[in-house]
Amino acid sequence: MSTEPIAVTSWKTTDGRLFTTFTSAEYHQKKLDDVVLANEILQAGGSVADALRSVNYRGDVSEVLNKVTTETKLVIPHWQCQDTPGYMPIRFELGLRVGVFGNAGAWSGSYGATITTKDLSRYAEHKDTIFHSQDAPNA
Predict the structure, then answer these.
(1) Closest CA relative to residue 75, chosen from 46, 51, 115, 102
(2) In 112-133, which positions are buried (b, 16+ CB within 10 angstroms) versus exposed (e)?
(3) I need a surface site. Which of 28, 106, 128, 136 has the fewest CB within 10 A?
């Protein structure tokens, strides 16, 4: 049995993760780059749908996501004690999940979490959602 050290090759992505194969590292790095690009579009005032299309998102993009921006105020009923719009999309995270944050009557105050684009679509369709171009809740 040899006691000599063995060289191990690995690839490091921009988030510091190490991968033993180049293909795995390249795949993960692409996902990281997609999040950066989607966030740039969202922060520049683009819609969630614009951001998803820019990274060739393969899931369904609901029509309502064309109106959802960082200015949109959502009702997320199971986080709240009342139907007051107040949670806003703030960023994309790995896996193109959407980080939302705000305070609209949650018993514990301000709250945030990541949600799927499917859940974001469902919350955006709530009758009290306030979109940036509107001054009043949906009719």
Answers:
(1) 102
(2) eeebebeebbebbeeebbbbee
(3) 136
